[in-house]
Amino acid sequence: MLKYSKFLGLVVFVFLFAMCNQKSKNESNKETILKGTLDVTVDETVKPIVDDQVAVFEGTYYSAKITVKPKSEAELINDLLNQKAKVVVTTRDLTKEEISRFEKSKIKPRVTPFAKDAIALISSKSNNDTLITLKSVIDFMQGKANTGIRGLVFDNPNSSTVRYMKELAKVQNVPTENVFSFKTNDEVIKFVSENEGMIGVVGVNWLSQPSPNMIDVVKKINVLSVKGLNSDKYYSPTQNDLAEVKYPLARDLFIINCQGYNGLGMGFGSFIAGDIGQRIVLKSGLLPVRTPGRKLQIRNKLLKDNE
């Protein structure tokens, strides 16, 4: 009887130990705002800035692992609405209809604006003209002749740049002639650099932060200055012209979190919108939503070399 009691006690001890160990393991694997794994689906036209944010975030919080998944805007929104993606970075806010779909599922999306981006129009260096009017681009999108544009080059038929330009021109479809589409912004830049007279439509982030294999290619293109519909001057997609609301092809960037709980998506979103994230945006060439502060040390006199 004593042996049986000892055996039963040993079984109970092993069971309790295993349960405690499993509980400890589950707690260590539990996702928090600064720990765990997360997939972030990103509009491919703004992938470079998100890559920068992820690199610094993971370098700061070692227990966080974020995987960036670039997709076209149409694919991204479709995945979000079908709950295949929980956290996304987009170049537009959700529509009322899209928000209504989430409300029916009792999900309240967290939408956080974090930067102002620009759509850049580019041409080959062989084209000496670095100016273009927005009206000529709209006329081309509307199928009008004699616009002076040989052809427009987009990254993807389902991309945010195509959607943006169609809305601007108030057309349902792009012209069937002299419009070219590729899969990536890098392919657009390369094609334009090799074909005189073509106008490329890309996210400016791909030009301000080109990948190592694209640095020499970017040097072969011009970033065009654009005259808006109600302007008599030409402006470039620079931080200054974006800040002064002068560049006519500006757009906002958002991180949308539909996790529905306090997970890594919330932590990453807060990071991007916070001081460090906004400094990364500023360094990238885009315009942060909030300009990071600077500390200035003011002296009454200059220090000597030996002081």
From TrEMBL:
InterPro entries with a match to the protein in the record: PBP_domain, Phosphate_ABC_transporter
> Which named protein is this?
Substrate-binding domain-containing protein
* Highest taxon in the source lineage: Bacteria
Q: Where is the signal peptide?
A: none
**Which PANTHER family does the protein's record reference?**
PERIPLASMIC PHOSPHATE BINDING COMPONENT OF PHOSPHATE ABC TRANSPORTER, PHOSPHATE-BINDING PROTEIN PSTS
Domain named PBP is located at: 35-274
Q: Which UniProt keywords apply?
A: Signal
